[in-house]
Amino acid sequence: MTGNIRYFMKNASTYVLWILVVVYTVVKLANQVFPLHIPIPFVVLITIVFGLLHGAMSYKWSGILTFIVICLVVSNLLENTSVMTGFPFGHYYYTDVIGPKLFLVPLLIGPSYCAIGYLAWVLGTVLIGDINRTSSAFTTFAVPFIASFAMVAWDLGFDPTASTINHFWIWEQGGGYFGVPLTNFLGWYFTVYVIFQLFALFLRLRRTDSNKEEEAFPRSFYAQAIIMYAVTGLGFVLAYLSESSNTLVTDAMGVVWHTKSIAEAEATVGIFTMIFVASLSSVKLLQRSAVATHKHQLKHDQVKRLPGKSL
């Protein structure tokens, strides 16, 4: 009976995840093409719910809640530290545009780390391998290393618009990437690497039921996260294609930028970072399936050749 309930809950969760993927795709892309003005917190909420449910299936509730706590604590700590000291992102401050703050950082920032961070993490495991008690030291450190690049790719696609155009935050000393400094992206990599590495060590060291250590998921399970990540990157492309105006904006150092140029650069970055990583992850999934099918066929052929055996 318990097995039937678990099977039902797993199937139900899978359907809900696909619904969330579709809703996120429609909301994210439609919000770029049409002036729907869907609030950012609502878009973030969709990805948070997806990450919680998807992560609970992968790592149980204790695992995904640990991931959330690590994200919220580390991101808020280092963001506040940077606002006060300039480390690790550089010198900047948040305006009041995106809502109330926890200390010096808006409440929305932490959940955003969690939402896209989980997607980047899943892509890292697709490219390198899952992490559990039997994982090698290489895998335990390689997944955070790769996932951090996937996460920073997202910031490359939105930071110039968010800061230089929309003034969600202000870079006090400007920067060469449309008003954003290189230190920001180095700081992003450092911050998310710390988050991912702590989570990887948690998965590597936590005690689990050895009989339930490995639970196989179909390709579609990982494809859900890949699609969510790819749609996020595609959003930058659609934002550029649907942008008709071209105005001038000035960063904190007085440097003037064209908004159309910013959108075009973000679209280019989105294609060759986020969409590339999503494509690479998709190919990896297909490769795994092809290898598994090939091995199964070889085993099948070997059994057929054994004397006295028939299928």
From TrEMBL:
Pfam families: Caroten_synth. InterPro entries: CruF-like. The chain crosses the membrane at residues 12-30, 36-54, 61-78, 98-123, 135-154, 186-205, 221-241, 267-286. It comes from the Bacteria. Keywords: Membrane, Transmembrane, Transmembrane helix. The keyword Lipid biosynthesis does not apply. This is Carotenoid biosynthesis protein. It comes from Neobacillus rhizophilus. The lineage of its organism: Bacteria, Bacillati, Bacillota, Bacilli, Bacillales.
